């Protein structure tokens, strides 16, 4: 199963830098565009604000959870969609934990009873230890498996990134 994504170094490094800068809190953000023109859009992690307002509903803090600003998210996504720019990824970090798709990550991506919200994108998880990115893993929806499957992530320093996102189904 050829299921991998060679992320152009500039975009990869920007995500990694944000993950390190936001340590020991979780970073989060969005990625749009074809590999030849990937755009990384860091987002604010609202987890601590939500927790302050309603600790019972939000027991975790920003050290082990992230919450994207839904209004901002919809606005950006709408803008990109109108221009025909593909939505490629949501990234976040795990400070002092491994890069893996947690139960919460899975439920955020595919709420029980709903199925995947964005089956076309890759969820990127950066492991950050002592303010250094230690690992990164990707996950995308597999129609065949009815579950998220791992996407091998590489940092590409190649001069000629592919012009288009891999066709849907290439990981499935
Ligand atoms: Zn996570």
Rg value: 16 Å
Output the helix-strand order.
EHEEHHEHEEE
| Number of separate strands | 7
**Which kinds of small molecule does this entry bind, naming each only once?**
zinc ion
User: Uncertain segments of ≥5 residues (pLDDT<50)?
Assistant: none
Please give the share of residues in helix: 10-25%
Shape: globular
As an assembly, this protein is single chain
Note down, in words, how this protein is organized.
The protein is α/β, with parallel strands linked by helices and about 170 residues long. It has one domain (about 5-155): Cytidine Deaminase, domain 2. About 25% of the residues lie in helices and about 30% in strands. It has 4 helices and 7 strands; from the N terminus they run βαββααβαβββ. It has a 7-stranded mixed β-sheet. It is globular and about 50 Å long. It starts with a strand and ends in a 16-residue tail after the last strand. The mean pLDDT is about 90. The site of zinc ion has 5 residues, from strand 4.
Topology overview:
Layout (H helix, E strand, L loop, with lengths): L3 E5 H14 L5 E5 L6 E5 L3 H7 L16 H13 L4 E9 L7 H7 L12 E8 L2 E11 L4 E10 L16
Parallel strand pairs: 1-7, 4-5
Antiparallel strand pairs: 2-3, 2-4, 5-6, 6-7
The site of zinc ion has 5 residues, from strand 4.
